[in-house]
Amino acid sequence: MSLGVTHIDHVSVLITDLDRGRHFYRDVLGLKEIAKPRTFDFKALWFEFGNQQLHLLLKPQADLPSPRHFALRVADIRMARVHFHKHRVETRETTLIPNCDRFFVLDPDDNRIEIIQWIEPYDPAKIGSGQFD
């Protein structure tokens, strides 16, 4: 019997400043802010894009820098690079994957975000390593 997972519902990210987090995720990334549940007795910001959500959780300290990240798919990666440069957000190039273009940015708390455009859908039979390690 399968668990029946259909998609990622949300991702949670730690932030240390609500205003700074709101500015980056709402104004720079362009995500739509939505109200968090009224039952929450802690500070958090919720954003919606497509049928998924991003939750920013206010904490006194940021996560330690790590390779953990989430990826946002865009329709035009070139325009995305220009957009981040206009907002003075450094873009960091990374390992090539056939049939896609991608880079990383950091939010104000150094959380990594991958920005990706698939030129063709990923086909593990064609470009996969054939290994699961």
Nutshell version of this structure?
This protein is of the alpha/beta class.
Write the layout of secondary structure elements.
Elements: E1 10-15, H1 18-28, E2 32-34, E3 44-49, E4 52-58, E5 69-73, H2 77-86, E6 92-93, E7 100-106, E8 112-118, H3 124-127
Parallel strand pairs: 1-4, 5-8
Antiparallel strand pairs: 2-3, 3-4, 6-7, 7-8
Commentary on this structure:
- With 133 residues, the chain is α/β, with parallel strands linked by helices.
- It has a single domain, classed as Roll (2,3-Dihydroxybiphenyl 1,2-Dioxygenase, domain 1).
- The protein contains three helices and eight strands.
- Strands 1-4-3-2 form a four-stranded mixed β-sheet, with helices on one face.
- Strand 6 and strand 7 form a beta hairpin.
- The model has no long low-confidence stretch (mean pLDDT 94).
- Beta content comes to 25-35%
The CATH topology is: 2,3-Dihydroxybiphenyl 1,2-Dioxygenase, domain 1
What is the CATH homology-level superfamily?
Answer: 2,3-Dihydroxybiphenyl 1,2-Dioxygenase, domain 1
Poorly predicted segments: none
Extended strand count: 8
* Tally of helical runs: 3
Binned, the helix content reads 10-25%
Return the structural class. alpha/beta
Can you give keywords for this protein?
single chain, 133 residues, 4-stranded mixed β-sheet, 19% helix
